[in-house]
Amino acid sequence: MPDEPIIDLQSDHYFMGEALRQARRARECEEVPVGAVVMREGRIIARAFNQVELLKDATAHAEMLALTQAEEAVGDWRLTDCTLYVTKEPCPMCAGAIIHVRLARIVYGAGDPKGGAAGGALNLLQLPSLNHRCEITSGVREAECRSLLQSFFAEQRERAKSEGPTTGFAE
What whole-number distance in Å separates Cα of residue 38 and Cα of residue 68? Predict the structure, then answer.
């Protein structure tokens, strides 16, 4: 079908690598290591990593920050021709924002069966009753994304054992 978008799995691998680079930056800042990039017409127009602790802002997830940057780059709140690459399946808050900006596609690495809103715990991105549905590609560079998260939380648990009170990070 000529009208179907062509998904280039090689570019998915590349752009997820850029999201992983952002996730590593988050980890260096002792943030939950999630990174995101927004791609439009083959170019990255936004890059972000989790900054919840840094900004003392519960909404400062990598996806939210990247979407805001992308809106600025495009000059509109609608991101209908953009793809979001994120290392972890988006939460319900981020999925809501993805729907509102009318993102064409999301590609994520590690799934989140407990809290993911792109097919893990629920799928807000393709809810038939909403005015927009987003194409989803999951599992891109999943092992790398998952490993980064697992090692971060293992370190947090070790630190909590040696320091006493909890750090506030949940897995």
Answer: 10
Rg (CA), the chain: 16
Residues 29-59 have pLDDT tens digits of 999 999 999 999 999 999 999 999 999 999 9
Q: What is the pTM of this model?
A: 0.89
At 162, list the tokens. 């040696």
Pick from 29, 91, 53: which is nearest to 167 by CA? 53
> Catalytic site residue 63?
yes
State the catalytic residue, choosing from 4, 30, 31, 63: 63
Task: Show the DSSP H helices in the chain as ranges.
Answer: 9-28, 52-55, 62-74, 92-100, 142-163
Identify which of 49, 61, 50, 32 has the alpha carbon closest to the alpha carbon of residue 156: 32
